[in-house]
Amino acid sequence: MAFVAWLAYGNSHAPSYKEVSFDDSRADSVTMDFELTKDDNETVTCAIQALNDQHAIVGWKEITIGKVPADQLSNDTSSHRVNLRTTSQAHTATVESCWSAG
Question: InterPro entries, alphabetically (predicted)?
Fold first, then answer.
């Protein structure tokens, strides 16, 4: 019973993200906008990936987000823009995952 409660509590406080937009108009980079919801004092790392039209990874970047200033928050959600260099033209960009960095 305690394990189930711990599992439910832990998952409810996991960081979450929402992909907002991306710009893949350049052959050597892509820009990704996303929103991140996390506890105020939590440090989170997110992996951003760029994919070509065959769904192969052509760019990858991990970013770490710590405390966000209060004027940049909407509840516990903040907006982020990531510029990602690519090895060839990207077709899309996604947040692969986000996790608590401890």
Answer: DUF4307
Q: Per-domain residue ranges for the chain?
A: 2-100
Residue 9: burial class (beta carbons within 10 Å; 0-12, 13-18, 19+): exposed
Q: Which residues contact 17 (CB under 8 A, 6 or more apart)?
A: 34, 35, 36, 37, 46, 95, 98
User: pLDDT by residue for the chain (102 residues), tens digit each?
Assistant: 544 444 444 555 789 999 999 999 999 999 999 999 999 889 999 999 999 999 999 999 999 999 999 889 899 999 999 999 999 999 999 999 999 987
d(CA 14, CA 53): 31
Q: Which residue has the tokens 């996390």?
A: 38
The structure's pTM equals 0.83
